[in-house]
Structures are given as C-alpha cells and as structure tokens.
Amino acid sequence: MSYKLTALGLMSGTSLDGVDAALIETDGMEVGAHIGTLTLPYAPELRATLRRVLDDVAGRALDDAKADAGIAQVVRDLTLAHAEAVAALRRQHPGVTVDVIGFHGQTLLHAPERRLTWQAGDATLLSSETRLPVVHDFRTDDVAAGGQGAPLAPLYHAALLRGHDRPVAVLNIGGVANVTLLTNDGAIWACDTGPGNALLDDWAERHTGVACDLDGALAGAGRAREDIVATLLRDPYFAVPLPKSLDRLSFHRAFEAVEGLSAEDGATTLLALTVEAVRATVLPERPCAWYVCGGGRHNPVLMERLRAQLGAPVEPVETLGWNGDALEAECFAFLAVRSLRGLPLCVPGTTGVPAPLTGGRLTCAAIASPHWLAGAWVAG
Ligand SMILES: Nc1ncnc2c1ncn2[C@@H]1O[C@H](COP(=O)(O)OP(=O)(O)OP(=O)(O)O)[C@@H](O)[C@H]1O
Ligand SMILES: CC(=O)N[C@H]1[C@@H]2OC[C@@H](O2)[C@@H](O)[C@@H]1O[C@H](C)C(=O)O
Question: Which ligand is nearest the CA of 174, by number?
C-alpha cells in the first residue's frame, strides 16, 4: 500500500435510523486496518422530523427547501449528531490520529433525472466541531455529468473483493436496496434494485409503533399476496437496464397496493417485493454467490426468502470477515481518500457516468494546515 491515511467515514442512510461511523486505514486503493466502528441512533424527534422533511422536500423546489430556516435547523441538528458520532468514535480510539472525515450527509432528495441530489449536512460546521478536514458532497459531480449519483459503494466492494471468485454480488439491503456485481472479465456493474427496508419500516411503524419489523416478527407471521407483488413488479423501473438508482420515496405507491391487508400480510407482501425486485434485476452475469450487507440481513424472514429465490448461495458479508453494519461508513472513509487523490468514485457500469469520475469536496474549517496537505502525496 502507498501512503495511507486514517479516515473516518460517516453514513446516515435512507432508513433514517442514525449515524454509522467507521475508522479505517487506506490509500484509496487498498484497505488496511479496520480500526473501529459505532452507530449513534438519531434522537426519535430528529428521526421524526427528518421523515417529515423528506416529504416536504419532495414537494418543492430544491433551492427553496435549502433556504427554509426550519430545514436549515434540521441540517444543523443532523450535522451535530454526526459530530457527536465522530467524538464518540475518537474517544474509543484515543491513540489514533484521524487524518480526514468522509461525510456522506443525509439524502433528502435524489432525482438524477433532474440532475438533482442532496445529501444534507454542513461540512463547515462538522469540520469546525471536529477540527478535522472533511470531504463531502460525493454525488453531485456524478449527477452533473449525467450519472445516477448512486450507488457509490461498488468501488469499495471491489477493493475488498480483490482476488475473490467471480461473478460475485454484494447486496446491500438498507432503506433502499442496491447490488454490486463483479464479473469474470473484471467489470463492475451496479444499481439500486428497488425498495429495501424503507416500506416495511414505515408499515411496521404504522401498525405497531415500532420503527422496523424487528426480526421479521410481522412478515414471518403473514402470507405474501403474490398477485400484488406481481403487479408492483410491472413498475417501469424494473424494465430499465442498469445502472439506475432510486429515492427513498420512489416506491411509496406500493403502500396503496397493500392498504387494507392485515399488518402481517402487508409486511410479508412488502418484504416479498424487496426480494422479487432483486430477482427481477437483470445482471450481465449470474452471480455464483450473493453476500448481503445492511440492516436487512438481520431480518431472518428476508434472508430466507432471498435464499429461496436467488438460485445461488446467499450469505451475510460476515462470511467474508466484513462488518455488514459498517460497510457504508467504511466506504465513505475510503471514498474520501480517493477524492483527495483525484481517483474515480464511479465508473460507467456503476452510475452510468460517461467515463470514470472523481468527486467530493474538501472543507477545512479552523485548521491552519492539515498535516497531510503539506506532503507531496496529495498532489500525486
Ligand atoms: N433485527 C432486525 N430485524 C429486522 N430488520 C432490521 C433489524 N435490524 C435492522 N433492520 C433493518 O435495517 C434497517 C437499517 O438498515 P441500514 O442501517 O443498512 O439502512 P441505511 O444504511 O439507513 O439505508 P441505505 O443503505 O438505504 O442508505 C432498519 O431500518 C431495519 O429495517
Ligand atoms: C442517493 C442515496 O443516498 N442513495 C443511497 C441509498 O441507500 C442505498 C442505495 O440508495 C444506494 O444507492 C445509496 O447509498 C449507498 C451507500 C451507495 O451509494 O452505494
């Protein structure tokens, strides 16, 4: 490995459950030590506010939403939650010097067809709170270049899977689900497959008051209405070839289709949609194995249906020695270092950009000269 940095990645995903933080060593090409991780759940009020803001932002002009004082306060609150996660992780590893933060931010809007994507977060505030350089805004350049802006995890998956048998797939089941496929000829393909847990979370919250269908308690007790799943699979999204990406709210019309079902049958049907959407994704090669990360792998009913439907072994990424709850946070640590080095964050097969493209912006507030900026390494 060439000159490596200690990078702290921060991800707050579409599930709106909180901030994942991870510390790794990397030169942006290889991944060295996995130093530590933690999750800091959002306070329930912040989560509820974010859920409302998502709906609000979807219905108005983006510039207008960004200028809204109420939304600005939410952005500040979520940034401070990220700063708290950084402080907590640094307290756990007092001997470690962090070189840079990779700050994804909270996606509040993703509409690549309008060349819009917004990962809310105040990088200047985070940098001044932590006194660390912050790389942020990872998706804008990709979308501006005509790409989907997502998923961005595939190059990290590829770095971790170097030398692994192919074709192989990594499936993330977060709020939205996304797949990375590494093919026999060394290509990387990716897309969002469809809903992940977001619909099931909202359904469970509505019916039980609990924020998710914990351990698949509801979905395991119901029957899937396969006719409804089949109808939902006629959505044009599934006919679009990859690369393609989704917003958290993209499939909320599925709610109308399950309206009137019992809590259990509705949950089983929504869970079946998540799995069938993966199966319906046309990949250039059939994976010989699927490795699953993201919170969905904790749902045994979901894993069981994936195993039954995908026609190849389906295992949690822990089988590979990875931490499936920290992977996305690690990814943004890795991408921060790639951004500093001007390396691509995406390639045509992952986001549809015309050519490999770097991205991200560096913000250094209240830091005279980050020690690594003095080195020749960054220029190289
Ligand atoms: N024990 C469990 N039983 C059922 N579901 C679970 C369990 N643990 C986590 N989950 C699901 O995982 C979700 C969180 O997953 P994750 O943290 O991967 O999402 P995210 O990173 O926010 O989303 P995305 O990857 O779309 O950005 C929860 O909202 C819940 O649906
Ligand atoms: C716009 C956005 O935030 N997309 C997320 C979301 O959550 C899962 C899926 O949709 C994925 O495409 C992406 O996140 C991961 C980290 C990615 O970019 O790979």
Answer: 1
Q: What residues does 34 pair with on adjacent strands? A: 24
Q: State the ipTM, two decimals.
A: 0.98
Atom of ligand 2 nearest to the CA of 196: 8
CATH number for the domain harbouring residue 29: 3.30.420.40
Which residue lies with its CA nearest to atom 10 of ligand 1? Answer: 295
Domain range for residue 214? 154-320
**Domain total for the chain?**
2
Which residues are annotated as part of the binding site? Answer: 13-20
For residue 56, what pLDDT band results from cuts at 50, 70 and 90? very high
d(CA 127, CA 123): 6
pLDDT at residue 217, as a whole number: 98
Which residues lie with the beta carbon below 6 Å from any ligand 2 atom?
13-14, 107, 110, 117, 150-153, 172, 174-176, 178, 192, 245, 328
pLDDT tops 70 at residue 378: no
User: Which of 320, 338, 354 delimits the end of a domain?
Assistant: 320
Q: Are residues 170 and 102 in the same domain?
A: no
- Nearest in space to 303 (alpha carbons), one of 274, 267, 262, 323: 274
Residue range 213-232: mean pLDDT, rounded? 98
Regarding whether 192 and 96 lie in a shared domain, the answer is: no
